[in-house]
Amino acid sequence: MTNIFEKSKRTHYSKDLNTDLKDENVKVTGWVHEIRDLGGIVFILLRDKDGIIQITAPSKKITPELMEQIRSAKKETIISVKGKVQESQKAPKGIEIIPETLDIINESKLPLPLDTTEKVRAEIDTRLDSRFIDLRKHDVSAIFKIKSQMLHTARNYFYDNGFTEINTPKLVASATEGGTELFPITYFEKEAFLGQSPQLYKQMMMASGLDNVFEIGNIFRAEEHDTLRHLNEAISIDAEMSFKSQEEVMETLETLVKLILSDISSNCSTQLEELNHTLEIPNKAFPIVPYEEVLDLVTSHDVTMNYGDDLSRAAEKVMGEVMDNYYFITDWPTSIKPFYVMPKEDDPEKSTAFDLMYKDLELSSGSQRIHNYDLLIKQMNSKELNPDAFDKYLRSFEYGMPPHSGWGMGAERLTMVITGVNNIRETVLFPRDRRRLTP
Ligand code: ATP
Ligand code: MG
Q1: Are strands 164-165 and 41-48 parallel, antiparallel or unpaired?
Q2: Residue located nearest, by CA, to atom 2 of ligand 1
Q3: pLDDT tens digits for 144-201?
Q4: What is the pTM (predicted TM-score) of this model?
Q5: DSSP letters along 328-352, please?
Q6: What spacing in Å lies between the alpha carbon of 365 and ligand 2's midpoint?
Q7: What is the DSSP string of 400-439?
Q8: Res 93: pLDDT
Q9: Whose Cα sits closest to atom 26 in ligand 1?
Q10: Best substitution site from 181, 215, 225, 362 to test ligand 1's pocket, by max atoms within 8 Å of Cβ?
Q11: How far does residue 428's CA lie from ligand 2's centre (Å)?
Q12: If DSSP codes are grouped into helix, strand and coil, which group holds residue 317?
């Protein structure tokens, strides 16, 4: 039976071909990356999932009919080629295939929306409009293989350490931290919003007795600004742990980030090479810089910052220059952190909040959370939030809520760091930003 799947069934991926297979018959399937017709000889570079192999067709050795078929293979058409492996000094990997049969599996239209062989990448907008073909470039797909490994490692880590994976709703009735940055939607006859964070739900799960929960899910933020590190839809890796302190969940976060770095370094070396990126693996503890020290550092570099200000972009830039790679900022003023953040017991003006930074980029925010009902109400009032709007959340604090802490880390922010790209849009297949809602 020669249906289309029989026809396209390969014996090898290009990455598995090597000189040990010399003189053997193999079959490869993939896209025509490049075709060069020199008259007496035609070269096709055939590209598959993670490699490229050269097909060499000298007219001396090949029937005129097959030669004709080979010549008709257009760029980005999918072909399946059966032939013999030969050594060749000039070909990639030192081998080529001399074809015996060729099947056209599906033709590509020309001209292409994007040239897959160009050495310089096209404009990001052009690429995102034709993302499917942009991803055929191995240095682009490398980003997503690395992101996939990152999420895989994160899941493994959580499963190995007694966490339960949870999925919380993304359609919500009210804001997590108060009115701003939300996408309103129509929910039957009511107004609802897209969730900006699973924060309130993962805290409610602390009252469920599950102890350690994590979620890898979408968050939606109606950020107006167009920056290289903000999206309107992102993936958040969230963890929440009962009976664990700020310091303990910081340790969890640091361990996870280090594990991700080491897994990527051992499992994604080809992809890092494609991206020309050297992974930095810190071998000591992430430094801890208290907020007041940040304030001193920033102002000593002639950037204006007052106690109680969040880090401006200019302030982040200073920190990026001063700090090596990963570090924590701790002891944030309670006044600029969300209502659910636990103030420090001995100095309530300061909080248990922390941010994990990589140079000038915020990767994660976390804290010990308030588990005491009365304190939670007090903090809501001081932030001018109406406790009535949070009544279902608040109930979970009245019937035995454990002390707990947690954090949320932006998956795309971390992907930027581990792949070395500087525009967050590079790390999302189909980014949602201020101007982009399709594809
Ligand atoms: P920033 O100050 O950088 O805008 P944030 O403090 O508003 O971030 P948090 O609410 O603390 O963000 O969210 C936790 C993490 O989620 C952030 O540290 C970041 O990694 C990620 N994140 C938040 N907003 C976005 C966004 N718009 N696009 C991509 N990632 C985001
Ligand atoms: Mg933050």
Answers
A1: unpaired
A2: 362
A3: 999 999 999 999 999 999 999 999 999 998 765 665 689 999 999 999 999 999 999 9
A4: 0.96
A5: EEE--BGGGS-TTBPBPSS-TTBBS
A6: 5
A7: -PPPEEEEEEEHHHHHHHHHT-S-GGGGSSS--BTTB---
A8: 87
A9: 230
A10: 362
A11: 20
A12: helix
Could you tell me if 44 and 35 are in contact, meaning their C-beta atoms sit under 8 angstroms apart? yes
410 lines ligand 1 (CB under 6 A): yes
Closest CA to 205 of 157, 241, 246: 241
Best CA proximity match to 103, nearest among 32, 17, 18: 32
What is the Å distance from ligand 2's center to 233 Cα?
A: 16
Residue pair 364/419 in contact (Cβ under 8 Å)? The answer is no
Question: For residue 144, what are its two tokens?
Answer: 């997503």
CA of 294 to the centre of ligand 2 (A): 15
* Residue that the structure tokens 């991206």 belong to: 275
CA of 221 to the centre of ligand 1 (A): 9
The DSSP symbol for 260 reads: H
Bridge partners of residue 186, in order along the sequence:
191
Judge whether 370 and 378 are in contact, CB under 8 Å: no
Length of the chain: 439
Q: Which two tokens stand for residue 338?
A: 């969300």
Q: Verify whether ligand 1 is closer than 6 Å to residue 177 (CB atom).
A: no
